[in-house]
Every structure is written in structure tokens, then in C-alpha cells.
Write a structure and sequence with these properties.
By secondary structure, the chain is of the alpha/beta class. The protein contains ten helices and eight strands. InterPro entries: AB_hydrolase_1 (IPR000073), AB_hydrolase_fold (IPR029058), AB_hydrolase_sf (IPR050266).
């Protein structure tokens, strides 16, 4: 395991690293997830050339620290991740980011362009995830006030997301989980979709076949490769790891 101090409190981001050639590949998890269980099979897949791979957890999630005095916005997540990558000696990396992690990666590429040479979004959030109490993910979490989520809302979310997602979500700091969901619901300025379209690097968006991102045509027109993965759901890397690895082999140098 590797780590780097990324916050004045001394809080550390941690990651599992697989050895290989440069440039590095950085794998970023979604809301309430952790990178190693989601990406380990794909990062070591024989279809992929073995690059140095960092399976990294954002502050507040998985094996990284949970500082109380961290804002847990998309922007602060991106800046903390940038600090970890610099301390790891990473530059010009390929970043593969799932769901909420895709939103963080878009902000990272916009604010710290020297760190990212290629961006692959995996069914990522491109638009604000509006609060909605009946939803299991970020919108459901953001529908609570922070006080209500910390006192009882997390138990209701636990029941809605089911045991598989909760197995990773239970490792998250509840305050950080809620604040991240609220930031995801609010979106960014300029909007995440606009930031993505304006990036000058190779970009791709992987999605379950039959469920393309909204306004996929405008993404393609701005140079984003939009790729459907058959027989997969939101967790593409878990549902169809071989097809996911094949797509990465096609998209990345």
C-alpha cells in the first residue's frame, strides 16, 4: 500500500499500486465505493499492457483517511487527488474514473491539466444529480440534511442500496459521503459536461449498451468517444471485465 499526505490535518490518500511501464494509469472509484475491489481484475487483465497502475481512494472513502475538516466537494477532492498524484511522481497519466469519480476526474483534468493525458469516464456523472429521496445513490443521499443523514438517513440508504454496494459504502465517512453527494447534486461552474467538452485531451465515455449518456451526439461532436458495453450495468468493470479491458486496450496508448 502507498500513501501521501494531502491535507493540512495530515490526512492521507492511500492506494494500491501495480508495477509496470509509464505512463501511469490511475483508477478512481465512484460514490461510496473503493478502487481496489472495483478495478483489480481489470487493471491486471492480460488484454492490457502492464502499465504502472494506481487504484486510489479519495479522502473519506475506502482505505484513505476521513478528515473532519475537509469540504468533500468535487473541487477539493480533485485538488487532494492532484496532490497525491504529484507526490507519487505521476504526470501525463491515463485516468479511468467511474460514476462520481468521473466528475472528480473531469475537474482534476480542468484544474491540473499536466497530470492527465487521457481520460476514460465509466458511466460517469456529467450533470447535477438532483436530490430525490427514493433514489439509492447520490441523489438519495443529498436529499437529507447532513444532520438527518448522520442520525438516521444512512440506515435508510443502506436498505436502498443493498448489500453489494453497502459492502464498500460502509467504509466511507458518513459526513464525507453526504457532502460529496451534495456537491455532486450541485454540479460545477462551468458545468461538468462543458468542462469535459472543452478538455484538449483524448476522452472517452463508456456506458452500458442501450443506456447512452444524455446528448451523446454533442459529446461526439466535441471529440469524446462514446462506447457502449454489451450486457453491463452501471458497474461495467464488475459486470463485464473482459469487455471493459478490451475497451481500455482500444482507447489507451
Amino acid at each position: 500500500m502507498h500513501d501521501a499526505v494531502v491535507h493540512p490535518s495530515g490526512a492521507r490518500i492511500r492506494w494500491v499500486e501495480l508495477p509496470g511501464a509509464e505512463p501511469s494509469r490511475v483508477y478512481v472509484h465512484g460514490l461510496g465505493a473503493t478502487s481496489a475491489p472495483y478495478y483489480a481484475e481489470v487493471a491486471a487483465h492480460p488484454l492490457l499492457p502492464q502499465h504502472r497502475s494506481l487504484l486510489i481512494d479519495l479522502l473519506g472513502f475506502g482505505i484513505s483517511d476521513h478528515p473532519r475538516d475537509f469540504a468533500y466537494t468535487l473541487e477539493t477532492h480533485a485538488d487532494a487527488l492532484a496532490e497525491a498524484l504529484r507526490k507519487a511522481g505521476v504526470a501525463g497519466a491515463s485516468v479511468i474514473a467511474h460514476s462520481m469519480g468521473g466528475a472528480v476526474a473531469i475537474v482534476l483534468a480542468s484544474r491540473h491539466p499536466e497530470l492527465i493525458a487521457n481520460l476514460v469516464l465509466v458511466d460517469a456523472d456529467l450533470d447535477p444529480d438532483r436530490p430525490a429521496p427514493v433514489r439509492p445513490g447520490g441523489g438519495g443521499i443529498a436529499s437529507y440534511t447532513e444532520e438527518a443523514f448522520l442520525s438516521h438517513g444512512w440506515k435508510e440508504v443502506r436498505e436502498r442500496v443493498g448489500p453489494h454496494w453497502w459492502s464498500a459504502m460502509r467504509l466511507a465517512d458518513l459526513r464525507g459521503l453526504h457532502r460529496t453527494a451534495v456537491s455532486l447534486a450541485a454540479g460545477t461552474t462551468p458545468p461538468m459536461r462543458r468542462l469535459l467538452q472543452d478538455l484538449p485531451i483524448p476522452r472517452a465515455f463508456l456506458h452500458p449498451e442501450g443506456d447512452p449518456p444524455e446528448d451523446a451526439g454533442s459529446l461526439r461532436a466535441s471529440g469524446v468517444r462514446v462506447v457502449g458495453i454489451p450486457e453491463s450495468g452501471h458497474g461495467i468493470m464488475l459486470d463485464e471485465p473482459e469487455a471493459f479491458a478490451r475497451a481500455l486496450a482500444d482507447l489507451l496508448p
